[in-house]
Design brief:
Layout lengths: L5 E3 L2 E3 L5 E7 L4 E8 L2 H20 L2 H17 L1 H12 L3 H18 L2 H4 L4 E6 L2 E9 L2 E5 L7 H12 L3 E5 L6 H12 L7 E3 L4 H9 L3 E7 L2 H13 L3 E5 L4 E5 L5 H13 L9 E7 L1 H17 L18 H16 L3 E4 L18 E4 L6 H4 L6 E7 L2 H10 L2 E2 L1 E5 L3 H10 L4 E4 L15 E2 L2 E2 L6 H7 L1 E9 L16
Parallel strand pairs: 7-8, 7-10, 8-9, 10-11, 12-13, 12-18, 13-16, 15-16, 18-19
Antiparallel strand pairs: 1-2, 3-4, 5-6, 6-22, 11-21, 14-15, 17-20
Length: 497
């Protein structure tokens, strides 16, 4: 089997001397392939291909760019089964989760087909004597995206459809842990008619990332990943004169009020905490029960629900939660469970020691539930990125909100309540970027924008939606005047007014 390579200038590219990294099936723990880790020259070749393609792509009529993206969307829908199979094989997601991820990505491609409407500028006639003024939005040039392992299909589709719809060309660096879906999707973009060089894919590690962050030809960088890396991306790329949006980590809280429909809240929490094995930046990892009575009832219902959770390979029908992405990440998450016990939290359901028959070497950790968690514990402070839900007790909505506001992350949150006044107070005042009311995963649809607050987002503009159009373009304002023929004008030394 040939190593997974790159897509540069419309062609699959490979280097015989490249460094290689194993790619695993996390459900079996077995190596299923190898991916090339790009050398600096390989990344530079991708940037050069994007730079060469930019002038013609920029000049293409926006409606034609949009039609090509429409063809791309059709191909994504036609090849959904193949894409989802790649996601399951390399990430471990169960099929329903993989299909949901891809569908959200397709919705962003659909939004990109509408972008010509958002590229329209503003026009004012006679802002001065026979002077007209207008603004327009021009593409930046070569832009780059660095995407995480947890959404190998969706997050790239957050980025490059909008970027290329605006007239830019793109270099994508997907996660080297599960690279096949992103590469396959990029080949579908070529099949749709996206010209060679407009979209390029380089697989690699930090060397590839640093090349994109420092190369002068790259005008902007989009990133999704952990907060420490997001901060590094933002600082390094900004220091090299680039526009940056870097989405980082999260610790998302769900507030459960005394009047909440507890059965519905429990079902929502099960999906939000344990879906995708908790490997989502929007996963609910903390449930804040307002009142001990609510906390006791919530824990009493979550325990049996976890006992019914079907953990298994994505290849097996009926699996609701798959494995973690890798052995090191499995050990990291398991270590947090160990730490929670050592720090004094009450371990209600222990996911350690789970064995999935026929997949004994897979990276499976069962759904884990802690109660009586307090803010000084590491399982509360840190983003665990695994199937671990912590229950915290609060005496009031105000106390619950103080907990959330005090946390360093501000990505997503939600409240379960029947009280409209409480919901409105919560949505108006909570210091978090994405908020749900009886919606556990308030991920905005494609025609809104996705972004947290505090240390969950570095940069001024969120991902996809209207913010993406502003991120991937520059405003230019033009003032124009045609002097009346035959009239000699005097020099004007005063500032124009």
């Amino acid at each position: 089997m040939s190593p997974i390579g790159h897509l540069i200038g419309g062609k699959l590219a490979s280097c015989p001397q490249a460094r290689l990294q194993d790619v695993y099936n996390p459900a079996t723990g077995k190596v299923t392939g190898q991916v090339e880790l790009a050398a600096k020259t390989t990344v530079e070749a991708a940037i050069a291909a994007a730079a060469a393609a930019f002038p013609a792509w920029r000049e293409m009529i926006p409606a034609k760019r949009a039609r090509l993206l429409g063809r791309f969307m059709t191909l994504l829908e036609a090849h959904a089964d193949e894409i989802c199979a790649l996601v399951t094989a390399e990430h471990g997601k169960v099929p329903d989760d993989a299909r949901g991820e891809l569908q959200r990505g397709i919705e962003n491609v659909e939004f990109a087909t509408y972008i010509p409407e958002l590229l329209k500028g503003e026009h004012s006639k006679n802002v001065g004597p026979k002077i007209d003024s207008w603004s327009e939005f021009q593409p930046l040039g070569v832009v780059a995206g660095i995407t995480p392992f947890n959404f190998p299909a969706m997050v790239p589709l957050w980025m490059y459809p909008a970027a290329i719809a605006c007239g830019n060309t793109f270099v994508l660096k997907p996660s080297e842990r599960d690279p096949s879906a992103a590469l396959y999707i990029a080949q579908l973009a070529l099949e749709a008619g996206i010209p060679p060089g407009v979209l390029n894919v380089v697989n690699g590690d930090k060397l590839a990332v640093d090349t994109l962050l420092t190369d002068k030809r790259v005008q902007a960088v989009s990133f999704v990943g952990s907060t420490p890396i997001a901060e590094y991306i933002y600082a390094t790329a900004s220091a090299n004169g680039k526009r940056v949006q870097a989405l980082g980590g999260a610790k998302n809280h769900a507030v459960v009020m005394p009047d909440a429909d507890l059965d519905n809240a429990v079902n929502a929490l099960m999906g939000a905490a344990y879906g995708s094995c908790g490997e989502r930046c929007m996963a609910i990892s903390v449930a804040v029960a307002v009142g001990d009575e609510v906390g006791d009832a919530l824990v009493a219902k979550l325990g049996p629900a976890l006992a019914r959770l079907k953990v298994g390979s994505g290849a097996e029908a009926g699996s609701e939660m798959g494995p973690l992405i890798s052995r090191p990440h499995f050990e990291k998450v398991k270590g947090y469970v160990d730490a929670g016990v050592a720090e004094g939290a009450k371990l209600v359901v222990d996911g350690r020691g789970l064995t999935v028959p026929g997949h004994e070497a897979g990276y499976f950790l069962g759904g884990t539930l802690f109660d009586r968690v307090t803010p000084e514990m590491s399982i509360y402070r840190d983003e665990i990125f695994g199937p671990v839900l912590c229950v915290v007790r609060a005496h009031s909505l105000e106390e619950a909100m103080e907990l959330i506001d005090a946390h360093e992350y501000g990505n997503g949150t939600c409240i379960f309540t029947r009280d409209g006044e409480a919901a409105r107070y919560f949505t108006d005042n909570i210091k978090v970027g994405m908020v749900g009311v009886n919606v556990p995963l308030p991920v905005p649809v494609a025609y809104h924008s996705f972004g947290g607050w505090k240390r969950s987002l570095f940069g001024d503009l969120s991902a996809y939606g209207p913010d993406a159009v502003r991120f991937y373009t520059r405003r230019k304002t033009v003032s124009q005047r045609w002097p009346t023929g035959g009239v000699r004008e005097k020099a004007q030394f005063a500032f124009p007014a």
